[in-house]
């Protein structure tokens, strides 16, 4: 080999020999098993080195994919929760609108509700005072919210805004002892009022006559009276009824439909276009 590639051998001869050896190797690899065996052996020897060399890249790529997947899942989950909340606001009025349509008197009202503004908010903290049922949300005047706007979750009515700041606001829950909600019984349209009694899972119907047609299991929805809460949103279900004639009024209690002890995302309802015209 030293003679072949020595300085005394011409370049043309070395090129010819190299080309011939290349052709022999190509033919041998194509038509014999020896080339395959050698190639397999070399690949087996080199594979651990390739694996070790690719480990940092694979680790980085796997970590990046994991972070991207978790972030993507988190964003998708948040988007789906917001979409669910927005859709729930419409579903909550389905039964009401169905009943109203049967009476042929809610086409204009339904149109006004569809034009109302809605804003998804997140709870930042819960009021530490056990006698005051309030939560703080992450929206304020810069987001266009004002005091007394109604607030719902995916199940039903939650309360209303109070003490609106620049970037945060307080929501007074309907179970607070200072809160009262005009409602009507969905079964028979009888109007009444539910009041908070300081218990997160209990409301009381105020001043209920013994003759009032109310039953356990009746669904209470907002009546629209007073102008604060739009009509037709689920509020509570009657769970207790005591018609003691020795008392001036029947004792009626209800359980909120909204899950007030586990709320995280809420929906602030804006004033409808119809209401705006009425106030103007």
TrEMBL record:
The keyword Thylakoid does not apply. Keywords: Cell shape. One of its GO terms (biological process) is regulation of cell shape. GO terms for cellular component: plasma membrane. Transmembrane segments: none annotated. PANTHER family: CELL SHAPE-DETERMINING PROTEIN MREC. This is Cell shape-determining protein MreC. It comes from Pseudoalteromonas amylolytica.
């Amino acid at each position: 080999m030293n003679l072949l590639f020595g300085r005394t051998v011409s370049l043309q001869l070395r090129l010819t020999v190299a080309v011939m050896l290349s052709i022999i190797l190509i033919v041998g690899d194509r038509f014999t098993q020896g080339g395959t065996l050698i190639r397999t052996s070399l690949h087996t020897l080199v594979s651990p080195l390739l694996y070790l060399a690719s480990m940092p890249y694979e680790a980085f790529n796997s970590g990046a994919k994991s972070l991207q997947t978790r972030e993507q899942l988190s964003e998708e989950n948040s988007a789906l929760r917001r979409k669910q909340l927005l859709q729930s606001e419409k579903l909550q009025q389905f039964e009401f609108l169905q009943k109203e349509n049967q009476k042929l008197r809610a086409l204009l009202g339904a149109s006004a509700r569809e034009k109302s503004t809605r804003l998804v908010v997140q709870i930042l903290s819960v009021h530490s005072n056990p006698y005051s049922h309030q939560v703080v949300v992450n929206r304020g005047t810069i987001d266009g919210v004002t005091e007394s706007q109604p607030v719902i979750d995916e199940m039903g009515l939650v309360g209303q805004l109070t003490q609106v700041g620049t970037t945060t606001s307080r929501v007074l829950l309907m179970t607070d002892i200072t809160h009262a909600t005009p409602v009507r019984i969905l079964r028979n349209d009888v109007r009444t009022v539910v009041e908070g009694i300081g218990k997160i899972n209990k409301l009381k119907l105020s001043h209920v006559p013994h003759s009032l047609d109310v039953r356990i299991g009746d669904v209470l929805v907002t009546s629209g009276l007073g102008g604060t809460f739009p009509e037709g949103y689920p509020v509570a279900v009657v769970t207790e009824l005591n018609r003691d004639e020795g008392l001036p009024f029947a004792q009626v209690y209800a359980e909120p439909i909204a899950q007030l002890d586990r709320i995280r995302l809420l929906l602030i309802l804006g004033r409808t276009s119809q209401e705006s015209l009425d106030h103007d």
